[in-house]
Amino acid sequence: MSTFQQVERIACVGAGYVGGPTCAMIAYKCPEIRVTVVDMNAEKINQWNSEALPIYEPGLEEIVKQCRGRNLFFSNDIPKAIREAQLIFISVNTPTKTYGRGKGMAPDLKYVESVSRAIADYAGGPKIVVEKSTVPVKAAESIGAILREAQKHNSNLSFQVLSNPEFLAEGTAIKDLANPDRVLIGGESSEEGLAAVAQLVQIYEHWVPKERIITTNTWSSELTKLAANAFLAQRISSINAVSAICEATGADVREVAHAVGHDSRIGNRFLQASVGRLKP
């Protein structure tokens, strides 16, 4: 029998662009679930609890106002949120490393690992831990190693680490959350792993059709997020290259993009010429 009961309490560590809107949508669609978003940044939490939210997305303010104080809460008390939650999202920054191996290229997992250690310290019982941050493949193994070490010293602890990457675009985040192309959940194929995946699937099924919820192993989920970022970057880089050719030949890049986008194999999204390329 699984140690994971139906989720009624969720915590999200990280009140940024991903964590805040995602948890607001979960609270909005799942009124029976208590959702607490926590962050070390007191100013950011104060903004989430005010009339001036720290980020702007069309539709976000209305959802937060409707749910805040009912089943959506914002707090600096990370230990309390971890203790009380059954499922914990890790939604912190993964900046580029500034030193050591991978400097200037690889993501720095120091914040992800710091949250993992906090979960290990304050959990007290079984927890489903969910990666929301953009991480390299096998990051879940690093999180799991920290949590397994804690299990050696406390038999009450039990953890499953899932991957549930975000696919949001700035300016349409609430629309993307309300009507996603897909929800991706990766986990282990063990009995406990499948039980943990089922709990997260059940949350999303409140508003996402079953056929749009894709379950994979953990590593496939992590890699899919990176691959999606790479494909989008290629697309933007390609139209920028076409834009340079248009300038040299007198063609109009908007007309070219419009015509190319009518090909059903290509589509018209992300075919607007811009400066640089997509930042993952």
Automatic annotation (TrEMBL):
Record: residues binding substrate: 167-170, 225, 270-274
Reactions mediated catalytically: UDP-alpha-D-glucose + 2 NAD(+) + H2O = UDP-alpha-D-glucuronate + 2 NADH + 3 H(+)
Domain (UDP-glucose/GDP-mannose dehydrogenase dimerisation) ranges: 219-276
Positions annotated to bind NAD(+): 39, 44, 94, 134, 170
Molecular function via GO: NAD binding; UDP-glucose 6-dehydrogenase activity
EC class name: oxidoreductase
Residue ranges of the TM segments: none
Every UDP-glucose/GDP-mannose dehydrogenase N-terminal domain range: 9-193
Single biological process term from Gene Ontology: UDP-glucuronate biosynthetic process
EC id: 1.1.1.22
InterPro entries found in the cross-reference section: 6-PGluconate_DH-like_C_sf, NAD(P)-bd_dom_sf, UDP-Glc/GDP-Man, UDP-Glc/GDP-Man_DH_dimer, UDP-Glc/GDP-Man_DH_N, UDPglc_DH_bac, UDPglc_DH_euk
GO cellular component, one term: nucleus
Keywords associated with the record: NAD, Oxidoreductase
Recorded metabolic or biological pathway in which this protein acts: Nucleotide-sugar biosynthesis; UDP-alpha-D-glucuronate biosynthesis; UDP-alpha-D-glucuronate from UDP-alpha-D-glucose: step 1/1
Signal peptide segment: none
Family under the similarity heading: Belongs to the UDP-glucose/GDP-mannose dehydrogenase family.
Biological function: Involved in the biosynthesis of glycosaminoglycans; hyaluronan, chondroitin sulfate, and heparan sulfate.
Protein name: UDP-glucose 6-dehydrogenase
